[in-house]
Amino acid sequence: MTTAEPAVSVSDLTKTYGAFTALKGVTFEIEHGETFALLGPNGAGKSTTIEILEGYRDRSGGEARVLGVDPQHGGLSWKARLGIVLQSSGESGNVTVREQLTQFARLYPNPRSVDETITAVGLEQKANVRIKNLSGGQRRRVDVALGVIGRPELLFLDEPTTGFDPEARRQFWGLIRDLKKEGTTILLTTHYLDEAAQLSDRAAVVAGGQLVAIGPVGTLGSTEARVPIVRWSENGSVREQRTLDPGRTVAELFDRLGEPAGLEVVRPSLEDIYLDLVGAYEKKQQEEVLA
Amino acid sequence: MTGLSTTKAGITTPDYGLGHTLRLGASRVAYETRVYFRQTDTLFFTFLFPVIMLTIFSVAFQGMGNVGADPDGSGGISQAAAYLPGMIAAGILLSGVQNLGVDIATERSDGTLKRLGGTPLPVLSYFFGKMGQVFVTSVLQIGLLLLVARFAFGVTLPADGASWMTFAWVYVLGIATSAVLGIAISRLPRSGKSATAVIIPPVLILQFISGVYLQFSLLPDWLQNVAGLFPLKWIGQGMRAVFLPESFAAVEPGGVWNLGSVAVALLIWLVAGLVICRLTFRWIRKDS
Lengths: 291, 288
Known about the structure:
The complex is a heterodimer of chains A (291) and B (288).
Chain A: E1 8-17, E2 20-30, E3 35-39, H1 46-54, E4 61-66, H2 76-79, E5 82-85, H3 97-105, H4 114-120, H5 136-148, E6 154-158, H6 166-181, E7 185-189, H7 193-199, E8 202-207, E9 210-216, E10 229-234, E11 237-242, H8 246-257, E12 261-266, H9 270-290
Parallel strand pairs in A: 3-7, 3-8, 5-6, 6-7
Antiparallel strand pairs in A: 1-2, 1-4, 8-9, 10-11, 10-12
Chain B: H1 18-36, H2 40-47, H3 49-60, H4 79-110, H5 112-117, H6 123-152, H7 161-185, H8 195-209, H9 221-227, H10 231-243, H11 259-280
Helix pairs in contact in B: 1-6, 2-4, 3-4, 3-6, 4-6, 4-7, 4-8, 4-10, 6-7, 7-10, 7-11, 10-11
């Protein structure tokens, strides 16, 4: 690695709206070329964080640097290096997909080809259809296309696959992997934990305006939370055992029972770990309220 | 991972000078104009409205004879000729204030402006695109009005260069003021849904008190003075100077067209509108 500063760095970020504190001291960094997922329940502060980094909101405290610039003072040449897919879009859409992408491509110094971008999001058949006549999932793909048309160094994706069917989601994952290969840095928020697990190098879990966990997706959560589970059927009932050595457990089972019926070795998914983390945080909050 | 693979080679430092801003603005004019003609509601309530009103008034009041006729019914001008300057003025107001006021308020509420605010589009290019759209559509609108007046209602249009010179400067000043005020007024509606409800009524009232539907000289003095505080009255007065016979100046305040005051009033509104836009325009309501 070079000693260059990270693509995004945030330290002790706070945001208050009147008496309400949306963010209480969030700190993380995103390296160049990294895909980073921000996870958390609704209202946890994900969108507030991402909108501060995009320059849409001013922070109340702490530091933020995005591509070497304070996002509160990012100029046009800074914006030209970003791609932004907002959480919601509702434009009237009286233009076709191709017209809209052509218009947006003009804004950037080094844009992608309009046709290639349309193909990349799978809208070839809809290129000449007005956006207002597209389905919700198709409009979302237009949002993604508009986010990447400028060949951004840093791409913000705020719940990008809401409304996608499973096939469209797979296709979107392929697109994100291509962008990663090109070296694009990506900050993703999503409610689909499988999506975060598939795409991101590291993830952070936000709850109540605070980071409750951060790290590579495979190491997130406590060690106990990630202990694999061996599950099998014995005497007509399902048995399970949490063990750090599932192979040995299976071998012992085999010695004892022969081929065990219904054998499974399950590693807790990111979703299980996430629910653990958020549940633990909420429990702690309740205890503090009661104490 | 090598540090170099992450920064793309070949990115030139982009030029964000005035040339770039104007080029982008010009491309936005084409885009905005195309979108304008795809919206059936603006097409009807903004673009065709003055033509429709001219037609209705001309046909409805035909039986009342000419305006400004001698007691024996001879002379004067047709109802269509009398209404034409007011309808042109109304078209200028609708194409700027009503069109942009509703359009930009809607774009603010539906997320268009938020999206644009996240791109390297200069605000000036955006304004340029909107004003260009207003200019193109209003030239077409007035062209249509003149054609309908001339060929459907037989109105005689001015034949001298001086009248058309007056028309040109009143028009340019009027449409620029109207467009700028449209951008300024777009801040008022709190949502896109309320935009037409907030913006159309004052625009309509202005048309009634500024000599568009009712002959200005018939209004009481105090109402004329109220109308004089707003730009539409002055655009209408300028257009009457262009399209009505010289003898009609007699019923204007002071018995003259008073084009100097037209220029001054419109310039004051233009500058005020520019200042308001500069001070109040934001891509989004930050921290709302």
